């Protein structure tokens, strides 16, 4: 399966946030660690709600987390 055209900076943002784990981020967003892992690896596109929640956790805009690359 090819990677999705939506790229993200979640891994970088996690490490800039006191090396937050995938599990910690998942708990704060309300999803599973496996979901965060799949989003980070560009194997799964998050819902708009989850994308906004992730951006909110890091106190950044959604555009600072996700980028569409056709």
TrEMBL record:
Pfam assignment, any one: HTH_3
Domain of life: Bacteria
UniProt key word DNA-binding: yes
MF terms (GO), sorted A to Z: DNA binding
Keyword DNA-binding: yes
Signal sequence coordinates: none
CDD domains per the UniProt record, alphabetical: HTH_XRE
Ranges of residues in domain HTH cro/C1-type: 20-65
PROSITE patterns hit by this protein: HTH_CROC1 (PS50943)
InterPro entries associated with the record: Cro/C1-type_HTH (IPR001387), Lambda_DNA-bd_dom_sf (IPR010982)
Record keywords, A-Z: DNA-binding
Protein name: Transcriptional regulator
Species: Pseudoalteromonas piscicida
């Amino acid at each position: 399966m090819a990677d999705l055209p939506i790229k993200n900076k979640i891994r970088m943002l996690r490490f800039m946030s006191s090396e937050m784990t995938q599990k910690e981020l998942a708990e704060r967003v309300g999803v599973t660690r496996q979901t965060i892992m799949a989003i980070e690896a560009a194997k799964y596109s998050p819902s708009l709600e989850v994308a906004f929640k992730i951006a909110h956790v890091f106190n950044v805009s959604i555009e600072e987390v996700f980028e569409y690359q056709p």
